[in-house]
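Follow-up to my earlier ticket, as requested here are the two runs.
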Amino acid sequence: MRSRYLDLLRALATVRVVVYHVTGWATLTLVFPAMSVMFALAGSLMAASLDRSGVAALRRRLRRLLPSLWVLAAIMVPAMLLTGLALTPEVLLWAFPVANPPANYWGALALSPIWYLRDYLWFVFASPAALWLFRRAPWPTLLAPYALLVAIEVGLLPNASMVLREFGIYFGAWLLGFAHHDGLLRRMSNRALVTAVLVVGGAGASWIVTHPGPRGYDLNDLPLGNALWSAAFVLVLLGRAPATTAWVDRVAPLGRAVTVLNRRALTVYLWHMPFVVALTPLVDVVGWSHQDPVGLAIRVALVFALVGVVTALVGWVEDVAARRRPELVPGGRPRTPAQRAVTDTSPLPAPTSSSSAAPGSSVTPSSAWPESTPERTRYRPAGTTSCTSPLSAWARAEAATASSTTTSPERASAST
């Protein structure tokens, strides 16, 4: 069953990431640690996918994740090759980024969000073994990434690889997603949950205050503070998730926005940073101060507008990869049963009225990740639909509606 609450979290996380990259406000990382939230949502959905499909869930995650990246790479990689990037075998990492793919001087910043997909792939491949361990020893498994990160930060593992560091920072959030899926967080008593939040959050806050980074209290510069503070945040968000969030869809514009941001989470995430970089020189030309609220608001609006254009052009790739009927703008009015009977000759499934996941998503939320998401991706269209006159299809739908006396309920669907 899909959760609009998880959809809402993914939508908020996506917006927060974009606004942070435009404004650079370090406070946003403390107020809403979006990346850990996205990994937690993705972990919850990955556990659901493994329960449903076993190891086949890995292939489905890749199918959801990679096509949107390929669209970006098909444009950006040739542009980088023409502006100084050397053509080496490492360029193939843009097709399957299990390590950092190469980039030139402007691509390194404009395409920097690729790290999320890299970590996401690592966590997906680790998930079958991690879920097996988690269900046999939940608390030791859950604490292991944080213990690893503490060992790295205090100097016990001074030469730790990037892989170990990333697992220490974010895999704990992924495992908290497992705990959410299995109901472990929900079964915690209020006293135990509050105590865990205060201890973990307090430790994270203490580390942040006593170890400020080059940008002050920006969590992106403070791995241990980031992991601990974010863990406390996720414990609150997922440990006491509301029983219902029906109010989201009672406000039509809000419900539609949540749906769009979920079904296009990966497209928004991948494409927003190139526009942030492209608009930066405009700030000096126009004379906008980096601290000017009006100038910042205009830049945020411009980035979202440009991302909206790209989303309309290539966002449908996420639909096809999820094996949904492609839509220009997701979340339109669901068809009636009679209308579905007329047009369901398509090899692609009918669109759902709720959103899908994000990068690697799976089931519960309308995926993050995506996944929900996420938790927040997608692929090439299957065959073609039969050619039917729109007018005759409409007439048959009207006739079927008029003659029918009962209405069959819509089939519930979940993102894969």
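Run two:
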Amino acid sequence: MRDEERGDVVSDVDTVTNERWLIDIAWRLDSLRWVPTGVLGDIAVRDGACMAAYAAGDPPGWLGHEQPDRALAARLCAGCPVQDQCLELELRTAGEDTVGVWGALSEVDRRALLGYWRQRGDRADDRGVGR
């Protein structure tokens, strides 16, 4: 089996480990299940590390670097206090159409997470977006 993003060969053990990792993230996001989407957006904009980079005026230094999404996500979101809120917001609002880096995860990882996240049930303001 090949990892889509890196082209690496992935073993069955890696697949099980990755599945467990995604399930753990989905469970962790349950703490945000009933937080209204607008509140999540306000938190992400106010406290997100990437938003602070844009607030400085100049484009952040990480833009334009050719890095795999996972490496960029790790670099961009390292130490961000609102990774979970950001991730929950993106899953709700973009669903399968997710692009870029959100909540310290790459597009590929968020798409893989989406099914596990959906299994956790409805969310506040759930109107079918991202479902």
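The only thing I checked on run two: The helical segments are 12-29, 37-47, 49-55, 69-77, 83-94, 107-119. Let me know what else you need.
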